Amino acid sequence: MKILIIEDDENIARILSSNLEKWGYQVCAAKDFNNIMETFHRFKPQLVLLDIVLPFFNGYYWSGEIRKVSTVPIIFISSKSEDMDIVMGMQSGGDDYITKPLNMNVLIAKVQAMLRRSYNFVNEIEYLKFGDIQLYLSENRVECAGLSVELTKTELLILDALFRKQGAVSGREEIMERCWQGDNFIDDNTLAVNMTRLRKKLQTIGLEGLIKTKKGRGYFLEREI
User: Fold this and answer.
1) Where are the domains of the chain?
2) pLDDT for 70-122, tens place per residue?
3) Where do the DSSP E strands lie in 12-152?
4) Which CATH number fits domain 127-221: 3.30.160.20, 1.10.10.10, 3.40.50.300, 1.10.260.40?
């Protein structure tokens, strides 16, 4: 597995690289912070560790640029720990968030969990249906009435859990287990932020209101025509 580190503090980047390489990962630390996408396309990583405060353009910008071409998992690493910073990171395409100073054991656990859930997701069937909506598991996209939108790995797993229930309620803990597979370091609002981002994506193909909230229990699908 290849991991791209986008961190302008050379000492932190070196520590991250050293620890990840000990676990057998192939690591590339970005050097040209004015042209991150060139490094991204050349290295073709399976996961990105992305700082927020960077020269030229911030991490939110680069996350958005990566999301234009890839669904690769992105973990933000930053000294910014306010809720709004975390929300902005998720809304710009991030899958998870860890704050500095870095606890290397926590970071390694998050990396392992993210890679496990993203790449061990075996599609025993090609797609799932809910009414006239198709969720294409191997293509990371959802389609309805000829319109489709690409999903991140987290968004795909959320919809996978909901589609399999066919309108019945999926509990919050059940969805989190499906998406994060027992990762004890997931922040409480991670699911909520990913759900908000997913709902906004669904709106772009006419599926506003597809995901409903059952207060105190979880989420379910309801097709409004």
Assistant:
1) 2-119, 127-221
2) 888 999 988 766 667 777 777 788 888 888 888 888 889 889 888 887 776 54
3) 26-29, 47-51, 74-78, 96-99, 127-130, 133-136, 141-144, 147-150
4) 1.10.10.10
- For 144-191, how does the pLDDT look when each residue is reduced to its tens digit (9 = 90+)? 999 999 998 889 989 998 998 889 999 888 888 877 765 555 655 788
Q: How far apart, in whole angstroms, are the C-alpha atoms of residue 143 and residue 88?
A: 26
Distance CA 76, CA 99 (A): 8
pLDDT digits (tens, 9 = 90+) for 17-76: 999 998 889 999 999 999 999 999 999 999 999 998 899 899 999 999 999 888 889 999
Q: Report d(CA 18, CA 12) in Å as an integer.
A: 10
* Furthest C-alpha separation in the chain: 55
Look-up: residue for tokens 């980047």? 13
**Architecture of domain 2-119 in this structure:** 3-Layer(aba) Sandwich (3.40)
CB atoms within 10 A of CB 67: 16
